[in-house]
Design a protein that fits this description.
- By secondary structure, the protein is an alpha/beta fold.
- 45% of the residues lie in helices and 14% in strands.
- The chain has twelve helices and nine strands.
- The protein has helices at 27-38, 50-57, 75-89, 124-145, 163-166, 176-200, 218-226, 234-246, 275-280, 282-285, 288-302, 312-322, and strands at residues 2-3, 18-22, 42-47, 65-69, 94-97, 154-159, 202-209, 263-267, 270-273.
- It has a nine-stranded mixed sheet with strand order 1-9-8-7-6-5-2-3-4, sandwiched between helices.
- Helix 1 (27-38) packs across helix 8 (234-246).
- The longest helix has 25 residues, at 176-200.
- The model is unreliable at 305-323 (pLDDT under 50).
């Protein structure tokens, strides 16, 4: 994976930009509110925890930070958050889908029987981590695009997880629906990145934190520390979110175009971008024949190239250079 190397001079672009954020009352979300505020942004954030959300909002200038209690699984609550931002600030520039929950129970319980399986399992993890993200992102595209000028920089950042890629390496516990939801977030980001940029002029990226010192880590925190596995601080992840919103990264090319379609893994306070490495090595993990067939399918059905297909020799040469 390539180290994420943002252009920190771009952080000044966040001055007076309007940011909408879910899950801002605790942990990564609260740290993200603080980070955007420090760079001069105007913020509307929501959270299901009304008391904690009001405490966070109370730390800042009430003209620049607004809070509303919301449940991300409810479409109307997501809409109300964007309406609040539009009412207070007149536009939206960056939208951060941060709210999420960890696995709750085990829907694949070993004690499951043909009798107990008659009733469907509750799915709060999928409701929050996937359905809520889709609600948020759909509404975000409309509000970000509304009255936007061609030169405006607009973005959506989705919160995945290291389990979006590396679920097998997570020690202890069960993460089945959590991992499924976070894989789906990456699928959503990939599906939207090109379409939303060309259709609405909006960048879409993802941040994928490894273990971060928040309430969600409690079930496995002791195990991680006992095995000397480094843990992120919420500020590590928040900084990455802010930098992606600000928009530029060394791997985006010599012209330093604003980033789109990136997924940045944050682990132990360090950051790596994953998607470009996967793209560059596609011939290795997919094989040149399969990659070529899928590319031909894309050209024939959609009139465009789905994947950048390189020869195995070039991929090997690139790997040698990077090493």
């Amino acid at each position: 994976m390539a180290r994420f190397d943002p252009d920190l001079t771009q952080l000044r672009s966040l001055q007076d930009k309007v940011v909408v954020l879910t899950g801002g009352a605790n942990g990564i979300g609260a740290a993200t509110v603080e980070a955007f505020y420090a760079h001069g942004a105007l913020i509307a954030f929501g959270d299901i925890n009304d008391e904690a959300g009001r405490i966070v909002a109370g730390k800042y200038d009430s003209k620049r930070v607004h809070f509303v209690r919301m449940d991300v699984t409810k479409y109307g609550d997501n809409l109300a958050l964007f309406q609040l931002a539009f009412k207070e600030f007149g536009r939206v520039d960056h939208a951060i889908s941060n709210a999420g929950v960890m696995e709750q129970g085990n829907i694949f319980d070993p004690n499951l029987t043909i009798e107990s399986v008659q009733e469907p399992a509750n799915s709060p993890v999928l409701d929050v981590n996937l359905i809520g993200v889709v609600h948020f992102t759909r509404i975000a595209t409309a509000y970000l695009h509304h009255n936007a000028e061609p030169t405006d920089d607009k973005s959506i950042t989705l919160l995945g997880s290291s389990t979006s890629y590396f679920v097998h390496s997570i020690p202890g516990g069960n993460f089945m629906t959590y991992a499924a939801s976070k894989h789906a977030v990456i699928g959503l980001m990939r599906s939207l990145a090109t379409y939303v940029q060309t259709t609405f002029g909006i960048r879409v990226n993802a941040v994928c934190p490894f273990a971060t010192d928040t309430g969600m880590l409690a079930p496995v925190k002791e195990l991680l520390l006992r095995n000397n596995i480094p843990v992120n601080k919420p500020e590590d992840v928040a900084g990455t979110i802010v930098e992606l919103a600000a928009g530029k990264h060394a791997s985006c090319g010599d012209e330093a175009e604003a980033c789109n379609g990136l997924a940045v893994v944050v682990a132990g306070g360090k950051r790596w971008e994953v998607e470009e490495s996967l793209e560059r090595t596609r011939n290795v993990w997919m094989g040149p024949e399969a990659a070529g067939l899928l590319d031909a399918l894309g050209r024939n059905l959609m009139g465009k190239k789905l994947f950048r297909v390189e020869t195995a020799e070039k991929t090997s040469a690139d790997d040698n250079v990077s090493n």
